[in-house]
């Protein structure tokens, strides 16, 4: 129980009251107060003292109640803060002792929790502010959201909730980074395209959003959906325009080259448009030269094409005849007969009649030239074998003439070369049947595939091969008969020598053999060596020469095999 201080102890209070009453009695005696008045005044004093005591007690009671109320409020606030912060592991007790002691014990705990809550609310506010700011930037209303602070729900200030907000903020920050990269990429692409196709870069970009050009005033670049959509649209539009211009320049460049080739334009004139013709084989991504796709370049090339077309119209007759020469040269090279004079007259009549589109006529002739090249390519293998056959036939004829020359082994200039050529010619002649057989098979396969006969300078190649084979067989038979006749003559001479002891004179036909070089074109054939007359030999030789074309280049005599190879 609480004790009163010494100044308020009963004994001292009573002594003080007694002293005061004595002093009051003296005063009353001096005044002359009656006993009734004195009793009345003493009763009033006693009542006033009781009232004072009552008031003091009441005040003390109220103070106690206030302390209890404060303590309860502190505990309630602590419970709310602990719950909002999610500090479920937090525990405290009010302690022991008087109410004031308990309050003094709990107050620091409450202040610490309040400080922790304030710091947590600050973190929530900052996080939500950043989230709201990025969301506003993405939505495109960043300025209107900057002035208002977000409302924090103080009922849930847990670490989990804060972590969720920070995770969401991190996602938004990553999204912002990606959007900024897209914006920068689009702006960079627009700048590159503005270099290729000169246009006002600043005006184009600022027309999408002012922050994309001027961000020095503290305003960050716009990353809103609307801005990204507009940037993407501008980039796609510019890329389509780039593709369109490149295709146009490529078409114009190809036309330039065709006209240059038609008109035999000198290289110096062509160099003026190298920057255009170099784009023909370029892809869209390979075009990097500044201003290479400008409208002024396109207009310049279009004017040049128009000028060349005018010049082309004036030289069309010359160009058509030039194409005809090229076509005839192709056919002539593969031994296909064409009526050049008639074809030229038809072309001249068409040009002079003005009833034909000269460009279409040139295009048609280009198609004929392409077809002629294909036909020449299909004949090439056979013609190569024909050349080999012709060369082998010539070597066969030379060898035949060479072996008829009785002086072929006489000492003289070129003898060793002729011997060497004869050795190679014999090897090549031995392959002639195989060459003719393979060539005939090739020609038949070609004719079966094409459905037309293979003509060689107006003559059927199969007929030429068949006639050659028959004549060659006839010559071989004649050579065998000649050898047999010679053998019989030698046998007869030997028998005569054995009977009479002397050798008969040579036949007159053998003594009249003409001596000449083995490389001469025509050599008389000794009658003793062949069983046919000189007249028949010459007639058969003439027939062979008519079968085998003569318009070929003969090889040097010291290398007869080079053409066959």
Automatic annotation (TrEMBL):
Keywords: Cytoplasm, Cytoskeleton, Microtubule. Coiled coil: none annotated. Residues 509-527 have a biased composition (Polar residues). Residues 496-534 are annotated as: Disordered. GO terms for cellular component: cytoplasm; microtubule; spindle. One of its GO terms (biological process) is microtubule cytoskeleton organization. InterPro entries: MAP65_Ase1_PRC1. Its main location: cytoplasm. GO terms for molecular function: microtubule binding. Pfam families: MAP65_ASE1 (PF03999). PANTHER family: 65-KDA MICROTUBULE-ASSOCIATED PROTEIN 5, PROTEIN REGULATOR OF CYTOKINESIS 1 PRC1-RELATED. Belongs to the MAP65/ASE1 family. This is 65-kDa microtubule-associated protein 5. It comes from Gossypium darwinii (Darwin's cotton).
């Amino acid at each position: 129980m609480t004790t009163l201080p010494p100044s308020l102890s009963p004994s001292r209070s009573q002594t003080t009251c007694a002293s005061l009453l004595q002093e009051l009695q003296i005063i009353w005696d001096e005044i002359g107060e009656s006993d009734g008045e004195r009793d009345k005044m003493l009763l009033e004093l006693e009542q006033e003292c009781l009232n004072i005591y009552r008031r003091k007690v009441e005040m003390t009671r109220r103070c106690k109640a206030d302390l209890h109320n404060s303590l309860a409020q502190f505990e309630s606030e602590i419970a709310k803060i602990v719950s909002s912060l999610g500090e479920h592991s937090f525990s405290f007790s009010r302690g022991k002792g008087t109410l004031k002691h308990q309050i003094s014990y709990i107050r620091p705990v409450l202040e610490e929790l309040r400080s922790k809550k304030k710091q947590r609310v600050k973190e929530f506010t900052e996080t939500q502010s950043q989230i709201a700011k990025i969301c506003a930037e993405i939505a495109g209303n960043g300025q209107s959201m900057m002035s208002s602070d977000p409302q924090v729900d103080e009922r849930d200030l847990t670490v989990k909730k804060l972590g969720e907000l920070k995770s969401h903020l991190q996602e938004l920050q990553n999204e912002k980074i990606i959007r900024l990269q897209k914006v920068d990429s689009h702006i960079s692409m627009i700048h590159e395209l503005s270099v290729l196709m000169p246009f006002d870069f600043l005006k184009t970009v600022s027309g999408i959003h002012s922050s994309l050009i001027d961000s020095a005033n503290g305003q960050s670049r716009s990353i809103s959906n609307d801005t990204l959509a507009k940037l993407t649209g501008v980039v796609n539009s510019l890329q389509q325009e780039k593709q369109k211009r490149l295709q146009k320049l490529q078409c114009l460049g190809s036309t330039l080259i065709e006209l240059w080739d038609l008109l035999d334009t000198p290289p110096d004139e062509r160099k003026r448009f190298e920057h255009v013709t170099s784009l023909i084989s370029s892809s869209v991504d390979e075009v990097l030269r500044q201003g290479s796709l400008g409208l002024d370049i396109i207009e310049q090339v279009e004017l040049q094409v128009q000028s060349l077309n005018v010049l082309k119209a004036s030289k069309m007759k010359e160009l058509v005849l030039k194409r005809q020469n090229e076509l005839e040269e192709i056919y002539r090279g593969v031994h296909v007969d064409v009526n050049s004079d008639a074809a030229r007259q038809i072309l001249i009549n068409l040009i002079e009649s003005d009833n034909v589109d000269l460009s279409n006529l040139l295009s048609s002739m280009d198609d004929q030239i392409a077809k002629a090249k294909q036909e020449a390519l299909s004949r090439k293998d056979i013609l190569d074998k024909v050349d080999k056959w012709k060369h082998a036939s010539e070597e066969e004829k030379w060898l035949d003439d060479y072996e008829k020359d009785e002086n072929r082994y006489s000492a003289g200039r070129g003898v060793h070369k002729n011997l060497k050529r004869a050795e190679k010619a014999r090897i090549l002649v031995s392959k002639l049947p195989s060459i003719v057989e393979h060539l005939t098979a090739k020609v038949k396969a070609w004719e079966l595939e094409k459905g037309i006969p293979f003509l060689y300078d107006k003559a059927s190649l199969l007929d030429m091969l068949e006639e050659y084979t028959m004549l060659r067989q006839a010559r071989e038979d004649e050579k065998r008969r000649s050898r047999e006749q010679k053998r019989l003559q030698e046998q007869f001479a030997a028998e005569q020598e054995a009977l009479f002891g002397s050798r008969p004179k040579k036949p007159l036909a053998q003594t009249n053999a003409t001596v000449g070089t083995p490389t001469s074109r025509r050599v008389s054939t000794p009658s003793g060596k062949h069983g046919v007359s000189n007249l028949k030999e010459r007639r058969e030789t003439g027939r062979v020469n008519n079968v085998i074309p003569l318009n070929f280049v003969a090889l040097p005599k010291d290398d007869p095999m080079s053409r066959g190879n």
